[in-house]
Amino acid sequence: METASALVLIAAGLVIGLGALGTAIGFGLLGGRLLEGTARQPEMAPMLQGKMFLMAGLLDAVPMIGVGIGMYMIFVLA
Predict the structure, then answer these.
(1) Tell me, what's the pLDDT at 1?
(2) Sheet strands (E) in 1-78
(3) Which residue spans traverse the membrane (predicted)?
(4) What DSSP designation does 1 have?
């Protein structure tokens, strides 16, 4: 029983950690593309920035869902 509990904790840590890693990579790519687009067409900067904030909000949902699943795994399954 103790081994199953330890495996659930490891799995929860992986879910939360990999979700955060994916989000960090996504934010890096998103910011880089925003800078590239703004450098090419400065007049489009406000529109690009608005779309970037929309995507950043959606991208923020990924680690929140991961935390929720991780907490479920820790408190219900372990």
Answers:
(1) 60
(2) none
(3) 6-31, 52-75
(4) -
